[in-house]
Design goal:
single chain; alpha+beta; 4-stranded antiparallel beta sheet; globular; phosphoprotein
Amino acid sequence: MISAISWVPRGVSKPVPSVADPPTKEEIDELIKTGALERSGDGESEDGDGEMDVETPKKDDQISQALEVAKALGKASKVTESGTKFDDITDGLRELDMEHYDDEEDGIDPFSSGLGDLYYPSNDMDPYLKDKDDDEESEDSDDMTINPTDSVIVCARNEDDVSQLEIWLYVESEDGESNVYVHHDVIISSFPLCTAWLDCPLKGGDKGNFIAVGLMDEPSIEIWDLDIIDEVQPCVVLGGIAEMKKKKGKKASIKYKEGSHRDSVLGLAWNKFYRNVLASASADKQVKIWDVATGKCTITMEHHTDKVQAVAWNHFAHQVLLSGSFDHSVVLKDGRASSHSGYKWTVTADVESLAWDPHTEHSFVVSLEDGTVKGFDIRAATSSSTSESKPSFTLHAHDKAVCAISYNPSAPNLLATGSTDKMVKLWDVSNNQPSCISSRNPKAGAVFSVSFSEDNPFLLAIGGSKGTLEVWDTSYDAAVAQRFGSYIKKSRTTPGS
């Protein structure tokens, strides 16, 4: 399944990403310590009863660890599939009979002109191999190159207990044809729940190209460098477990890093104005503000009574933060008035997602588990944090939970919704009177994430339970073209579109 999607701005990615250095022994030991790699034998009973050959466990450990490292590097072969034993590798090597390789009879192919056709000191001297190598290298180079006009999409994906970040390219040719494919992926330690792209220069320079990831059953936030291939560890980890002690017959004792969440991270929001600031929402009922440059939590807020599902920064007032919770509430906090308790809106079900209107400072929408979407105008809020403000509109959008919403960054009042009913819908919410202008089943399964592109604003990325990224060019929808045609024309004449 694809649980979250983030667009990377055009021209930010390196044309050819760097390849990570192989992990050092210390890094592998750290991966094992944190549980990213597990040594064979961890499932043994604590009592350690039973007899076994002394040498066999050592071989098991070495091979299992090697396979796990290969898997973490993204280079594991089919022999790592579930149920495969290291004996299969041994059998394969035995079948090759490498020990008697040199005993084979030398001979010359009767159909050749002699040994000269069979052997060259190097591939560079073999005319057949040289041409083939040049062609393959050229194709590989083209496939790995990210052009300034390519759109990059990061998908948080899980399949067969393998969690990863997939970096997709959406490429448009001169004749208007489009192609979507995976450029590379990053193996991560746990099921990804949410992502947020950020450009804070964590490794020096003016800007970077990073993705922050919130994880299931993990209190930490991992930040990965998208310009590096085959990386094993994130470049920054916010919070997490400092130490875990297991005692026989007792519950494990957990010591958290200073400022860390205590449960899964469910939502993330990067502040584009204060570029080192990241907000996080957690199942521990807390909202935290992080300085990613220092790796420290600067503010912890505890204004919800249940899991916090989503956070969103205002596009105009950059210190204003919304948070939505399973306690059926949305809370606004303004960093410019830190002593104020904030404003609170009560809703009818668990909050699934939040979105500020990018075209006005005062409006936001919230999607709910009961299939509805509500719009609010913060100007109608009273000074009392306990008062209830009526929504600007209530939209019965889907038959099931509305997991994702996204405003079009170019066309005002164009809103996309995605639901576990497998449908994606487009709405015109002008004058607080929403009307559905288009809908489709993108064949993504239950839809968990939808997101309009900033650079190509009528491209809508869709991810769901089937695990395949779908990109809908909504500009070719007749109803969209009829209502928002002027914005479509403008987006197509914008440089780089």
